[in-house]
């Protein structure tokens, strides 16, 4: 990754012409309010940031509750680049083990780029050009908030290079510009990617976020098992029911409440139980991922407190309070994907990330 | 009330014949498990209990979240009565300011009676007969959990006279027998009436309850404004939508989560906001109560943190952190009921009850 960070920048200038030709993208740059009244000076010549993977659609927390996962995520490096037109950003490199080949270096079509542009707009940056390097630690389309991690890392990096003038909510708004482009206007990945821990999206207009603090001193591990399978996004969306019967609505609402209470109380048994209790989305989506239903059963048999689909899949997520037991659970889940779904899968056991996107390196301007 | 307590018992014997003739009622007496293996001895000759009013259907907490209200509720007195057939209970008197004339003294058709019988059954009482006096402090059909308060007070009184062998969950189950008879198998009134505070009903089979602790030292007042109007129960039920669109489902789920978090964090502003945010039930029911929509607006204008319908109405409930401000809010709400709904209304300002049903008097057996 160090090599990636140090690779020479290949600026892509974003001319006003491009904006004019692509009105859908203009929104990224012009729909957001300018937060700072005066243009801030850069305080670093370069920064490097990290943003964690996230698990959204947490069972009954569908579309409004997500959490961050430690030790797994994307890095973004941003540096002041005199060769880039002032007020613009270029993506100099995209690297990493995961499918970077699929990602565009055009900042208008790249999650990190869109979020970086939105952040620059909010900061009112007009005099400095930036170049950005994206290091993908997350696989694309796995249900682990890959796009949100890139956007979160970029928003934080741009904000920090100019002295961190923006608030967390502004950074989420910047990241939302990117999410809206790639996966819909949903904050349940981008908010925890930026804020860490569990985040409840209370409303979008205005954006209201609730950070749900899982008690310090309590351990929470996620067993993340990703099968070698492309979850058909269109099918996953089409599987969602348009209408929900009152009994299922009441049930899922009560489980959502129980999930929130369990998080705040650090009740892992209750959290797992709530996570596993979705009667609306998971029952429709699980059959579209070969083996998923058996994988969940295998996780529970192996001692997991709960298990569901991470995001829109195909990753399965189980929760446990012990890393070693997590590894055993992961093994059982991988076996079930193989036996019942005929899919190869890899398991990881990761802690709850309590911090969210952060600076991991910087070079001061003087 | 003392007069009521001391009024002479008029036992109504419940013969097995009556059970046989009314199979719907048999469930009250025979569907519950016997909890105690040996029949407990009475430890008091008489006891007196109190159970508080409750506010259920808390906005987005529809059908699964309720809370108890201090200083407002029903009293039940129970005494060992040799003139009552062993293992049976009679209702000797029903008194109080609120519509006691409507209530049956047949224990099989009275909330307190059904809950008392269920509790006796769980305790395996075969050798002692009881007589019961019900003092109604709550109006019927007001949306303040009147039936649940009677049932809760009766269950606690019977349990306590035999030494308090049953657990809280058993008492809720006993009370549920009564609720099932009068208003459906919903625990969102009976559970907080017995347990106090906020209670989330997590599941019914098995019954799982979560007590949500509102932080000590934080004040929470309910402004309860009851108009002189009979909420048409059938209409109120018929108004509920059978199917709910996904966006409204997600919205209400997120608000339910926010409500739970606000309760646990003692965030009254957040609690009020969530309480007011229901997009599914309240918008359908409020128009059936003359003036309700304007009453809510009046409460908010007067400074309430939130306002919704209590239970199925017609009482409106607003929340605030100060008693005096609560009185002002209540005044505004009463005025709005008068002006917009052409209804007389009375306002009360009451604290959150954190205790639930309890013994308030007893006479030991020796």
UniProtKB/TrEMBL annotation, chains A, B:
Q: Sorted alphabetically, which keywords does the UniProt record give?
A: Amino-acid biosynthesis, ATP-binding, Kinase, Nucleotide-binding, Threonine biosynthesis, Transferase
Copy the pathway line from the protein's UniProt record: Amino-acid biosynthesis; L-threonine biosynthesis; L-threonine from L-aspartate: step 4/5
Query: EC no.?
Result: 2.7.1.39
Biological process terms in GO annotation:
threonine biosynthetic process
Enzyme class label:
transferase
Q: Where is the GHMP kinase C-terminal domain?
A: 261-337
Can you tell me where the transmembrane regions are? none
Q: Which reaction does it catalyse?
A: L-homoserine + ATP = O-phospho-L-homoserine + ADP + H(+)
Kinase: present as a keyword of the record?
A: yes
| Coiled-coil positions | none
The protein's GO terms of the molecular function aspect are:
ATP binding; homoserine kinase activity
- Give residue ranges for domain GHMP kinase N-terminal: 120-197
Pfam families reported for this sequence: GHMP_kinases_C, GHMP_kinases_N
Q: Which family does it belong to?
A: Belongs to the GHMP kinase family. Homoserine kinase subfamily.
Q: What is this protein called?
A: Homoserine kinase
Organism lineage reads as:
Eukaryota, Viridiplantae, Streptophyta, Embryophyta, Tracheophyta
């Amino acid at each position: 990754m160090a090599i990636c960070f140090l690779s020479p920048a290949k600026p892509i200038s974003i001319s006003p012409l491009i904006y004019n030709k692509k009105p859908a993208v203009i929104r990224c740059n012009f729909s957001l309010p300018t937060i700072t009244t005066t243009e801030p000076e850069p305080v670093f010549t370069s920064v490097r940031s990290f943003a964690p993977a996230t698990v959204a659609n947490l069972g009954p927390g569908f579309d409004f509750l997500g959490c961050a996962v430690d030790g797994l995520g994307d890095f973004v490096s941003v540096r002041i680049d005199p060769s880039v037109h002032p007020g613009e950003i270029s993506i100099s490199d995209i690297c990493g083990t995961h499918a970077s080949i699929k990602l565009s270096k055009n900042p208008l079509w790249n999650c990190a780029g869109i979020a970086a542009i939105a952040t620059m707009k909010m900061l009112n940056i007009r005099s400095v050009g930036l170049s950005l390097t994206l290091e993908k630690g997350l696989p694309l389309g796995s249900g682990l908030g890959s796009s949100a991690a890139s956007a979160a890392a970029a928003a934080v990096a741009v904000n920090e290079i100019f002295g961190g003038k923006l608030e967390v909510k502004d950074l989420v708004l910047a990241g939302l510009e990117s999410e809206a482009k790639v996966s819909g206007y949903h904050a349940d990945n981008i908010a925890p990617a930026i804020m860490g821990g569990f985040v409840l999206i209370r409303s979008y207009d205005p954006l209201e976020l609730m950070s749900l603090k899982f008690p310090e001193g309590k351990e929470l591990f996620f067993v993340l098992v990703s099968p070698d399978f492309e979850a058909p996004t269109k099918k996953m969306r089409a599987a969602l029911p348009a209408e929900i019967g009152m009994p299922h609505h009441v049930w899922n609402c009560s489980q959502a409440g129980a999930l929130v209470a369990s998080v705040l109380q650090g009740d892992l048994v209750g959290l797992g139980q709530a996570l596993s209790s979705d009667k609306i989305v998971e029952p429709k989506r699980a059959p579209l991922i070969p083996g998923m239903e058996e994988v969940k059963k295998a996780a529970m048999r192996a001692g997991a407190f709960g298990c569901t689909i991470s995001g829109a899949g195909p990753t399965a997520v189980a929760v446990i309070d012990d890393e070693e037991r997590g590894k055993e659970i992961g093994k059982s889940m991988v076996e079930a994907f193989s036996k019942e779904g005929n899919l190869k899968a890899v398991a990881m056991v990761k802690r709850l990330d309590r911090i969210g996107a952060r600076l991991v390196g910087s070079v001061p301007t003087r």
